[in-house]
Amino acid sequence: MNGKKKTITTVIIVILLIAAIVGVGLALRKKNTLSTPVTNSTIGMGTVVVESFYCSDTDVSNAAITKSTKIINELDKKRLSWREDGSDVAKVNANGSSSVDSVTYDCIKNCLNVSSKCDGIFDITVGKLSGLWNIGTEDARVPSDEEIDAALPTINYSRVALSGDNKVEIGADQKLDLGAVGKGLACDVIKEYLADTDVVGGTVSVGGSILVYGSNPTSKDKSWNVGVRDPFGNESDYMAVINCGPCFISTSGDYEKVLVADGKKYHHILNPKTGYPAESNVTGVTVICDSGALSDALSTACFILGYSDESLKLLDEYNANAIFITKDKKVYVTKGIADSVTITNDSFKVEK
Amino acid sequence: MNLKFLKKSDVALIIILLIICAICLLPKYLSKSDSLTAVIIKDGQEIERIDLSAVTEEYEIDLQCTPKATITVGPNYIFYSYAECPDKLCVNTGKLTHAGDTAACIPSKTLVVLEGQKSSDQPDVITY
User: Fold this and answer.
1) Chain A contact for B4 (CB, 8 A cutoff)
2) What is the mean pLDDT of chain A?
3) CA A32 – CA A322 distance, rounded (Å)
4) Each residue of B63-101: pLDDT tens digit?
5) What one-character DSSP code corresponds to residue A76?
């Protein structure tokens, strides 16, 4: 009788201990995968791509990385690149008109909308001009004034016609270039895909255009911290941090993709009115809003416009916010994110 | 101690199980080191993985790519020291020293990434 009781007690204790070990083990495993993201770096869309995802199942994170990379490469090859024969943009450029995928169509439509609100300072019909400069490629060069003068009249967004069946038509002399919004558009498409997965949260950087997705399991309030590159420092230096929830962030700066010719530096953001790299009071503009392609388009427009009433009005139109960094290290932050931005480098001064 | 329901062998069993439990948890604590690993990627494939915290003397790696590019590896740092491409963006990136730092030579399709535990005050991602 007594012996039997003892055996039962022993069995119960052993079972409880095994349950405790398994429980602690599982809890730690889960905590572990949610405290460190699965991260991957690669080259896509002619730039550096970094994907970082949090999920309790690392297989899901790994699958998300594979799929995101595929989305970026296919978007470039089949939709946006004017260098890839057979892409939507290449077809429109070659034939003057073509039916395109709905992703390309919607993106072009949204770009034309931005152009109409900033008097064409952002314009996707810059293809002829950007093809002359080719900045960011091995064929980069400074075009002659005659070449630029010949290209300028071809730039006019209002001559692009959109019609049923996702058809896009451009003027006979025009060429489309969606290079300014491709990286942000990739972020948009990846966000749509992630919504159908079990990924809890993560970030995707396509050449500095950022998707901030879901919640951050490593922070108390589930928020994210996005650093803003220091335009005067090295590539990994940042001068401010934006604390944010899910959003899209894009930066345009004159330190990226530079062509040096005859001792003069030429950056890659062309002013469609002058034909030359844009010169304004800013060296970098970071835009935060709820669409990737839009954040790209707005950061380009705001960079060309500089810190001005026009750029602030444009941001207002899209409920977007921005950080402007001027050439003399002054920082202007729009009201909507003023409380979320922390300057981490003392040599920059926030102007109120 | 008056353990009414426990025999000596039961106590021994419990202790053994606790030891097994401790052994299972040990790797988690041991893995929390400050290691910094450089991963070199070429054409989308990882070609080399170097524990930079174990490097004592500087040396070079010829990436055998077109255009040509060379990487210099040292104690807790790595950088593109030479590239034949026109813009030299990779060389201008400078030394990579922190987890998450990245340098790329787009023309030669090569990339260097530093892996390791990010410090908590570092941002999740940087926009540029």
Assistant:
1) no
2) 93
3) 35
4) 999 999 999 999 999 999 999 987 788 898 889 998 888
5) I
In sequence order, what E strands does chain A have?
38-44, 47-54, 97-99, 161-163, 167-169, 201-206, 209-214, 224-229, 238-244, 247-253, 259-261, 264-266, 282-289, 321-326, 330-333, 341-343, 349-351
Distance CA(B9)–CA(B12), nearest Å, equals 5
Using CB atoms, which residue from B14, B94, B106 is nearest to A47? B106
Residues B67 and B108: beta-carbon distance below 8 Å: yes
> Which residues from A are below 8 Å from B96, CB to CB?
236
Q: Is the separation of the CB atoms in A114 and A311 below 8 Å? A: no
pLDDT (average), residues A212-229: 97
Average of pLDDT values for A321-334?
98
* CB nearest to B111's CB, from A41, A209, A224: A41
Q: Would you say residue A3 has pLDDT above 70? A: no
Hey, which residues does A34 pair with through a beta bridge? none
CA distance A170 to A92: 7
| Chain-chain contact of B127 with A203 (C-beta, under 8 angstroms) | no
**pLDDT in the model for residue A15:** 79
Mapped onto helix, strand or coil, the DSSP state of residue A122 is coil
Task: Give the pLDDT of residue A143.
Answer: 96
The number of residues in chain A equals: 352
Q: What is the pLDDT of residues B12-51, one digit of tens each?
A: 888 888 888 788 777 655 554 568 999 999 988 899 999 9
Contact A10 B107 (CB under 8 A): no
- pLDDT on residue A228: 98
Q: Does B107 touch chain A (CB under 8 A)?
A: yes
State yes or no: ipTM above 0.90.
no
Distances (CA, A) of B86 to A44, B61, B106: 20, 20, 11
A267: contact with B, CB 8 A cutoff: no
Nearest by CB to B123, from A5, A238, A258: name it: A238
Report chain B residues whose CB lies below 8 A from the CB of A24. 21, 25
What is the number of other CB atoms lying within 10 angstroms of the CB of residue A246?
16
Residues constituting chain B: 128
With CB atoms and an 8 Å threshold, state whether B6 touches A6. Answer: yes
Contact A250, A292 (CB under 8 A): yes
Calpha distance A58→A40 (Å, rounded): 13
Q: What is the pLDDT of residue A69?
A: 97
- A127 φ, ψ (degrees, to nearest 5): -45, -45
What lies within 8 Å, CB to CB, of A273 at 6+ separation is: A120, A121, A152
B124 touches chain A (CB under 8 A): yes
Quick check: B125 and A212 CB within 8 A? yes
